[in-house]
Amino acid sequence: MATMSDPRWEGHVPPTAFEEYSEKYAAFFKMRRENGIIELRLHTDGGPYIHNWAAHNAWNRVWQDVGNDPDNHVLILTGTGETWFRGDPEETWPRPIVDEEPDYIFQQTIDAWKLIENFVNNLDIPTIAAVNGPGIHTEFALLCDITLAAEDADFMDPHFMAGTAPGDGLSLALQHLMGTKRAAYDIYSGRSIPARKALDYGLVSDVLPREELLPKAWAIAGDIMKRPRFARWATHNIVSRPWRKLVAEDFGFHFSQQMLATVAAKRQVPDPDLVVEARSRKVW
């Protein structure tokens, strides 16, 4: 590893190598790295990402491995094909979570908690999202330093519409970026926040045709790489500071309310009867 080649580092415990963690998470992310820029592309079997709990569990650890590798200087996060996220809530949540064993509920809670905490706190490098289409779980994209979106991207929050409270990090991002009143209206209504409106609201940095997203992301990353490393690191610290404060102060409250609402409902969440419209919009 180039950054640890100095003999004074002899005996150090090295971080996990790119070759190892890129293979470890290959079922969830296609990774490539060029000149210090690492791209993580969500996928399932090489196609659009379809939500599953194995990936949900892996997310909190991949942020750690990527963040711990000193050869990663800029992160690009994107999806595959024409959607950011797909999934069938009836398969993901086949029964009410209150009917699950305590250890299962605990693991679900820890995974959802740490995947946000680790994304914000373990990535000490500039981050760029290229949201390639509609889909939920866009909180990671919104938490990035720069967020590019395809014309048909959709940033709606489905939680209240599906029968629970909005606590997994998306509502936190919406409140911070678009304001309390706008966020409340969109949280209660579950209405679409298409890319152009998201740009007007300050949720995203730019809207581009899908075929231009990744080239633009790589161009921005390449431009960032022209600056000294300490400048890149310090600038990311400055622009991500609001997120770190919000996660430290508010995320635990948000997420505990979602888990309380989901468990106390004693019914299947998401409620299949309440997500028909979301499916039609390709967010599930």
Automatic annotation (TrEMBL):
For this protein's source organism, the top of the classification is: Bacteria, Bacillati, Actinomycetota, Actinomycetes, Kitasatosporales
This protein is called Enoyl-CoA hydratase/isomerase family protein
Q: Which organism is it from?
A: Streptomyces mordarskii
- Gene3D superfamilies (alphabetical): 2-enoyl-CoA Hydratase, Chain A, domain 1
Q: Which Pfam families match?
A: ECH_1
